[in-house]
Automatic annotation (TrEMBL):
KW Transferase (keyword) present: yes
Coiled-coil stretches noted in the UniProt entry, renumbered to this chain: none
Protein name: SAM-dependent methyltransferase
Gene3D superfamilies documented for this protein: Vaccinia Virus protein VP39
GO biological process, one term: methylation
All copies of domain Methyltransferase, residue ranges: 33-125
Source species, domain of life: Bacteria
InterPro entries documented for this protein: Methyltransf_25 (IPR041698), SAM-dependent_MTases_sf (IPR029063)
Keywords tagged on the record: Methyltransferase, Transferase
A GO molecular-function descriptor: methyltransferase activity
Length: 196
């Protein structure tokens, strides 16, 4: 599905970064940042322009190729890793930051990934996340049609046990990101820190 979605010349979710990430990028410590389910590169390229050492992981080769072109067009470099998040090893106490922007995974896979995220952050490392909540199904402005791939603040608090939340909130906001995220969205936003 993702290779097909990314196979057009335009960028499915645009080339500008997610606004929650752009507004809060200063919360991420400078250093190595992992961007999960990065797709065509908009968030990873933004992070690279801000001076981060970025690794973008995605299951779509087509998306990652476009991410490379977007990085070149912006005069930055980043590591691109083609991998299924079910099998991808995040490492142990390695990342200064991890970014998860609209990463729609089945709940069992998401829970396992979030356990890995907690272990993969360095002490003082930060997770920045935005995702759709199940209330998004009422809007139909992006995020698919399965509540199982959506998440609430309460779920995140449970799945990311071991992190301290600086921000954890559910809200409705206009999400205007390319063709597939356009209109009022029901989202959860989180910034969480691994204790030192």
């Amino acid at each position: 599905m993702w290779d097909e979605r990314y196979s057009t010349d335009d960028y499915a979710y645009g080339t500008a970064p997610n606004t929650f990430l752009a507004d809060n990028v200063g919360a991420l410590p400078k250093g190595r940042v992992l961007s999960l389910a990065e797709g065509e590169g908009r968030n990873a390229v933004f992070l690279a322009t801000q001076g981060y050492v970025v690794t973008a992981v995605d299951a779509s080769r087509v998306g990652l190729e476009k991410a490379g072109r977007l990085a070149s067009a912006n005069g930055v470099d980043m590591e691109r890793v083609h991998a299924d998040l079910a099998a991808f090893e995040l490492g142990d106490t390695y990342w200064d930051g991890i970014v998860s922007i609209f990463c729609p995974l089945p709940s069992q896979l998401r829970k396992a990934l979030h356990r890995k995220v907690v272990g993969a952050l360095k002490p003082g490392g930060v997770l920045l996340l935005e995702a759709y909540t199940p209330a998004q199904l009422q809007h139909g402005t992006g995020g698919g049609s399965s509540a199982d791939t959506m998440v609430t603040a309460a779920m995140l608090r449970d799945e990311l046990a071991g992190l301290d939340f600086r921000i954890l909130r559910e809200l409705e906001r206009e999400v205007i990101e390319g063709r597939y995220h356009t209109g009022l969205g029901a989202v959860v936003q989180a910034i969480a820190v691994k204790p030192v």
